[in-house]
Write a structure and sequence with these properties.
Blueprint lengths: L18 H13 L6 E4 L6 H10 L8 E5 L5 H9 L16 H4 L4 E5 L6 H13 L1 E3 L6 E3 L3 E6 L3 H6 L5 H7 L2 E4 L10 H15 L7 E2 L1 H9 L5 H15 L4 E2 L4 H11 L12 H8 L12 H20 L4 H8 L3 H18 L4 H5 L1
Parallel strand pairs: 1-6, 1-7, 2-3, 3-6, 8-9
Antiparallel strand pairs: 4-5
Helix pairs in contact: 5-7, 8-10, 9-12, 11-13, 13-14, 14-15
């Protein structure tokens, strides 16, 4: 008789019982106790870091450190120093010795997020660490040996990058020992409601509310109708917004309307996939909630651009204006975020031209 398989999430902070997640749980339970490298594959926001933490917690290294590095958030030289450390005087600004993340992860696990963005130079150094378990700090010839389990994540096809010559084939095989593919939220819609309730409880506690707010049927219908291109991360942000906008502990799809109205009036540039109306507005319409629409032409770009700006500015506020943290939470490159902020500033300058006397001066 075949052995029965658990369908429960392996840890309390992993939510979902959709069929698409069962393979994830099975592979996680099989891989975690072993020491093999794991490659997490999935779109931005699908929960790759949550799974990486679970692999570490369920491994024999759980008493050791868990170190996370976002490879897409730092320039090549900074990332090299971050990963492998440096000695005093190795480069301008190196005023003291620095321990790298691999050294700090000795005896534990290191999670390399956005591994697909790593430069060819660093790919060579990483391959050596995986093969020989050794490296040198930047500016130093002394070899350091480490015992580290590598969990990597990518939101792009490494196979395609290998074919294009942008990613080393030998490194790919070293990382891809146990691949785990995380499904996008649109392929596990039955998990949207339990995830939304999980985040509602979390943010109710953080905001010191007397109890978890109730998600009304119109909220659940709107959430389930949306395709969530930003996946679980986008859903979490949407629920947090609902918690903030609710002043009586009762959540309703109506709470989504004021934020959208403010965004629509602001306008701006932006692009987003799918349809003639942004997905969340479309979902609200399906759920029976009518969203306000601006007058004039270019309706799609006005709506999408405003939604994009609202999201970026909200995340920046939550990250106290730190662009690296905000880009990481948004799941975009820091340079992309910086370019977006420059576009917003240019839009504001065009919308608020200087008075005639100032312009003349």
């Amino acid at each position: 008789m075949p052995r029965s398989e658990s369908v429960e999430p392996p840890l309390p902070d992993i939510v979902g019982s959709a069929p698409a997640m069962l393979d994830v749980y099975r592979l996680l339970r099989l891989a975690a106790p072993r020491g093999a490298n794991v490659l997490l594959i999935g779109e931005t926001g699908t929960g790759k870091e949550v799974i990486a933490k679970a692999i570490h917690k369920l491994s024999r290294r759980s008493d050791g450190p868990y170190i996370r590095v976002n490879c897409g958030a730092l320039h090549e030289n900074l990332l090299e120093s971050e990963l492998f450390g440096h000695i005093k005087g190795a480069f301008t600004g190196a005023v003291e010795n620095k321990t790298g993340r691999f050294e700090a992860a000795h005896g534990g696990s290191i999670f390399l997020d956005e591994i697909n963005s790593m430069s060819p130079k660093l790919q060579v150094k990483l391959l050596r660490v995986l093969q020989e378990r050794e490296f040198e700090r930047v500016g130093e010839s002394r070899t350091i040996r480490v015992d580290v389990r590598v969990i990597a994540a990518t939101n792009a096809s490494l196979e395609d990058l290998v074919e294009q010559g942008q990613f080393r084939e030998d490194l790919y095989y070293r990382l891809n020992v146990v691949p785990i593919t995380l499904p996008p939220l649109r392929e596990r819609r039955e998990d949207i409601e339990p995830l939304a309730r999980f985040f509602a409880r979390r943010y109710a506690e953080q905001n010191k509310l007397p109890g978890p707010p109730d998600l009304t049927p119109d909220v659940v219908a709107a959430l389930r109708a949306y395709d969530w291109p930003g996946n679980v991360r986008e859903l979490e942000n949407a629920v947090e917004r609902l918690i903030v906008l609710s002043d009586d502990g009762h959540l309703s799809a109506e709470h989504l309307r004021p934020a959208r109205a403010r965004v629509v009036l602001r306008g701006g540039k932006g692009t987003a996939p799918g349809g003639d109306v942004p997905g969340l507005i479309r979902a609200l319409v399906r759920a029976g909630v009518q969203a306000p629409l601006p007058a004039g032409k270019k309706l799609y770009h006005a709506l999408v651009g405003g939604l994009e700006r609202e999201l970026i500015e909200q995340v920046l506020r939550q990250c106290d204006g730190v662009q690296i943290k905000a880009a990481d939470r948004l799941g975009i490159n820091r340079n992309t975020l910086h370019k977006k902020l420059e576009e917003f500033a240019a839009d504001d300058a065009r919308a608020d031209p200087p008075p005639p006397e100032a312009a003349a001066g």
